Amino acid sequence: MSSVVKVSAIASYLPEKVLTNTDLEKILDTSDKWIVQRTGISERRIAVNESVSKMASLVAQKLLKKSGLSGKDINLIIVSSMTPDGTSPTAAAFVKDNISANNAFGFDVNSACTGFVYALSIGEKFARNPDYKNVLVIASEQNSKYLNWTDRTTSVLFGDGAGGVLLQRSSDKNDVESFLGEQMDIKYDKAITNAMLKDSNELPTNKIIPISTLKMDGRKVFEFVVTKVPQNINTLLEKTHTPINSVDKLILHQANKRLLPLIEKEINTVGVYTPCDIQKYGNTSSASIPILLDSVYNGQDADDTVILSGFGGGLSIGSMLLHLKGRF
Ligand code: ACO
């Protein structure tokens, strides 16, 4: 299927405050050695002076600057976040205000770490319509505010940050090509929660008890990722008749460095470059893919076939095949 939508700009924002593994050793029964060996993470950023809406707005400003557009050129703003400042006004509404996007409307989406890829697939469908010439798709996460800082099994893993892209119509045969989303049975649901539910079987009753911090059954999620994510990517490749050797880069959600070679092995990615920046930023949930895109392509000329794959809470997976062409 040829497409008429392209990624025209990529940007990210990382908070200034760095929290190292050595800092965590002082407040938790953990060690730099354990964290590096088990996850690949050395440090992460913590948003002290930034909210989700502020980080998303800073990314939007960078996207405008990179593309030479002004706020009034933007028609639609989609923000992915599993850690929004509130439910209303949405983060997208704040972005619209902060960049004076007077001709835009916007909304937020949430599918945990998969959210950016889902948001991108929604944005792409709008951008096919000539009424939506310029679409901002941004992911912004302040995981630190949902962490239990006495729980070493989750708090060492996550970081804060934001990233996003500008989507525009294109006459080229390339760009955003195909998308495959998947949602596991609800039996998996409790593997990752920060839900307002005491029990996912109690839907929705007056027994709802707020649980404000993130909990994750790491081993169960690890197993899910190494079996289901490669299957999802392989199905996408088959559906689109794309041989793996025509893919230049595999941009995976940054949840654990150890996951990357295991996924690569299952999809037989000989010669495919699978970049990783988890060492510096930890798991920034839905922001990890656009942050990684910006780390890889910032200032570079690209002509790459790329697979994006996000996975996480739900449990959910979303993979997308796209072509990135131009200077980002
Ligand atoms: N420091 C020291 N020891 C620790 C720490 C820590 N920070 N955390 C756990 N341990 C201990 C455990 O208590 C356990 O000790 P025990 O053997 O005495 O019981 C031991 O280390 C091993 O624990 P495991 O949980 O088995 O460690 P594992 O190697 O599985 O690593 C991790 C845990 C990093 C969470 C891994 O399972 C993982 O990456 N899972 C997948 C995460 C993922 O993909 N998430 C998806 C996206 S997230 C989202 O959507 C919100």
Can you give a write-up of this model?
- The protein is α/β, with parallel strands linked by helices.
- The protein has one domain: 3-Layer(aba) Sandwich (Peroxisomal Thiolase, Chain A, domain 1).
- Helix content is 30%, strand content 26%.
- The strands form 4 sheets. It has a 5-stranded mixed sheet, with helices on both faces.
- Helix 4 links the parallel strand 4 and strand 5.
- The longest helix is centred in the C-terminal third of the chain and has 22 residues.
- It is globular, with a radius of gyration of 19 Å.
- It binds acetyl coenzyme *A (ACO).
- Acetyl coenzyme *A binds next to helix 2, helix 6, helix 7 and strand 12.
Q: Within the largest sheet, what's the order of strands?
A: 1-7-6-4-5
User: Which geometry do the CA atoms define?
Assistant: globular
**What would you report as the Rg, rounded to the nearest angstrom?**
19 Å
Order of helices and strands: EEHHEHEHEHEHEEEEHEHHHEE
CATH homologous superfamily placement: Thiolase/Chalcone synthase
CATH arch. level architecture = 3-Layer(aba) Sandwich
- How many domain modules? 1
Oligomer: single chain
Give the integer mean of the pLDDT values: 89
- State the share of residues found in helices, binned by percent: 25-40%
Instruction: Look at the helices and sheets and give the structural class.
Output: alpha/beta
Q: First CA to last CA: what distance? A: 25 Å
For the secondary structure, the number of strands is 13
Percent in strands: 25-35%
